[in-house]
Amino acid sequence: RNSYSKTDLDAVAMMMKDKLTIRPAYNEGICVENGFVLNYIVSDSAADNVSFIPLMEGVICNLNKVPENANADGAYGNEENHSFLEEKEIGDFLKYNTYHKEKSKSWREKRIRFSDFTYDEEKDQFTCKNDVILRCTGESEEITKTGYRRKIKTYKAEEENCLSCPFRSKCTEGKARTLQVSWNAERLKQQAQQNLDSEKGKELRTRRGNEVESVFGDEKLNKRKRRYHLRGLEKINLEAGLYYMSHNVRKIHKINQEKTQKMVVLKKKTKMVLTEMLNRNVVGVIPMAAGF
């Protein structure tokens, strides 16, 4: 993947939006508030979630304050990013990858999911639909590519209990069902779910679609910028930075232009009203109308 392009050695092979084409590419992420781009990041990783923390740290640096809330799509919702928001005391409205699927009845019934198991906190064990017990077999630590450490506990059922289980075909393809659980991730996931299902969460989800996607849409469709013109990650970052600076300048100019137009319209309406009042009530007094 890293040597996919011979003219840009930093570019890596990535699947395009059409889900069919693989091309040398970069992954670009942005933070947006009311149409203004607060920060951007360009990386050579196909995974969005690894760029979230650097992106947010840049926002905090640019604003010189911590944002109140953070909202993103399902590609960003993982334990590391949820933990970062909790540490910074930022409202966590990150979707996780199964957020919408969990609300689907067909998805829940297709397989035996984690939520179908009952947990006994006192005994530290799970019980399945068929009353088979999954006991804790050990605890391990997983280190991600970014250096984040996850504590994972493994729970496993006895093989003889799973062999004749009527739910076996929907539960496991192995000899016995195994659950790997990060309790910290589950806690953070439940908090995010509550936030997303709240009225504030619904509002932010709607705004994210309008604000973030419209910036990308404007870039690709209106400005016809679908490819980078430079080569190398360092130069690509400069190119992206210049574009988003110009985007913000255009946004400011548009707002000022709209304010100016409103003032012009207001002055015209005021002049018309005053002129009408003078003509109606002060007929023949010409000097009164001379200043409008």
UniProtKB/TrEMBL annotation:
<dbReference type="Pfam" id="PF13751">
    <property type="entry name" value="DDE_Tnp_1_6"/>
</dbReference>
<protein>
    <recommendedName>
        <fullName>Transposase DDE domain-containing protein</fullName>
    </recommendedName>
</protein>
<feature type="domain" description="Transposase DDE">
    <location>
        <begin position="128"/>
        <end position="253"/>
    </location>
</feature>
<dbReference type="InterPro" id="IPR025668">
    <property type="entry name" value="Tnp_DDE_dom"/>
</dbReference>
